[in-house]
# Entry
Amino acid sequence: MQSLMKVVLAPRTGSATESERRKKKKEDVLLERSLSSSTRYPSMPRYPLSPLHGEVDVSEIRKANLKVTGMECAACAGSIEKAVKRLPGIEEATVSVLQNRAQVVYRPAFVQEESIREAIEDAGFEAEAIVDDAGQRSGSISRFRIKGMTCTSCSNSIESSLKKLDGVQKAVVALATEECEVRHDAGVISHVQLAAAIDDLGYEAELLIAGEETNRIRLQLEGVTAAADFQLVKEMLVALSGVTSVDLDFSNAMVTVSYEPDRAGPRTFIETIEQAGVFTAKLEAPRGRGSHDRGLEIQHHKKYFLWSLVFTVPVFFLSMVFMYIPGIMEGLEHGRLNGLSIGALLRWILATPVQF
# Structure
């Protein structure tokens, strides 16, 4: 009788074990799906079944703010977002070219902030963590347009010099937009003194914004023709996190957005407006003296380039073409004037204007 009971109970025990296995597997799949339910970038991997599930709270979400240097255009921001979103555990990644910043929402059970920073650096940019400066939000904000910057060394030198001034809480210089934003204590240092400090470094500073106000930009709208269209655009922008106010300019088809730079940025606003499929938006083109000076600078460099080309092309032919033509080569090399060949003398005469 006991042997029969063992034979009968054995399959039931095996069936119970198999049932527990299936149940556990189902729970793991449901857990993975729940973690992956949010909208993800197409190339993002699904969350792995981490062995730390029993020790770490996988539902915990953190936010990392990083300063990114080396960006020059929207394509740079796109490549950084793509690199970050490929990491497991990334909920959201937003990169602002104007602010040189990246904000990443992630799950620490699957990825660490150091891995995010390394992913940005592997994409060809530099990244460093930004210490929370919430206690310094009461200062005034001054924004300048800076002329004369040519590389990241220029922007970095301006930024480091401004940070050393008494009363300056934060300074960010964007080479791509030729703009500088400074958060400072107006009772210690004024925007006039900030502009003078920038001028002392060898650059020209033009004041754009001064006072206790949040970041503000103006967007030019296209495809917006009726009041209902303006209202729709306003509702889309107001719904975004970090937007403090939205003002409409019906006559010029413009919208002014005030926002918190740590939570939103111009690129987010433009993408949100264009998601409707019928509207387009772009940053307001610079006006007045700044844009006029920029045009003069472009014409100035173009003129120098063309004159340099006039002298450089003959040097190329003298050095790389005529030297291999027998008759001309002998005339250029055998003629001597004060120890210099005719060819060397001609090259010196033509290269001197380009040099100076």
